[in-house]
Fold this protein.
Amino acid sequence: MAVESAADLALVIKLIFDKALTEPAFGSVYADLCVCGAEQFTDFQASDGGSGEGRSKPITFKRLLLNRCQEEFEAEKNLQLAGLDERAAAAAASKAKKRALGNIRFIGELYKKGMLTEKVMHECLIKLLGEEGAPQEEEIECLCKLLMTIGKNIDHERARQHVNEYFARMAQLALPSSNLDARHRFMLLDIIELRKNRWELKGALATTAVQAKTIAEVHKEAADEERRQSQLAAQVAMSARHGGRRGGGPPEREMAPRGGSGDICLLYTSDAADEEDSV
């Protein structure tokens, strides 16, 4: 397929993006494909709409890709379920959740390939931890997925203070006295333990490591994961009946966003920071 216009370029990005979200185990491969696309595809000049205000910024592969990341990041919170019956609403919410998890993992892979800056990752983490009030359960799942993907890369000496603050907040959320259910508290505890293990995946977490696998292996992993989640739910219920897991965390510390409002428009990299938020 020849890419002869911005519309063709957008279609290519849509195909790559949809595959990355539906096949998250191949996220690293699709991120590599995006790096190649950003280097090889021709830029297209945007129309200025006859405004006469001078030459518009070009439409690039990276610009369209990051616009798509932004749209997906915001899609779940803008999900409209009004007018749907219970079954249809549940199906729509489930689909949106899977796409959100796939998107946040793909964002992490793009960062690891150098297409997103570290500052963007910090802004995403702050947003997922809840800038105002407690985060939603879906945000907790996205937070854990993102940290599993980028934790080893972002937890270095220069960023240690920020990462310590994130984990202090996570420790508070993981307390039995928090408003989160046991499943999501245990998710947070797993990530806290992962950091203590220097981001080396062990036990059940190792089964969710990001690796390129065959389609058959991906389907088998999905089935195994469903069984694992069922077993975990049973263990959580049993633990809850016996008083739950007890633990503590660092003293409460106020965490405030640094360097920006945390708006997802910061998904642009530094070399694209002067581009408009939409195309």
The longest helix spans residues 86-112. The two ends are 23 Å apart (CA to CA). The chain has nine helices and two strands. Confidence is low (pLDDT under 50) at residues 244-279.
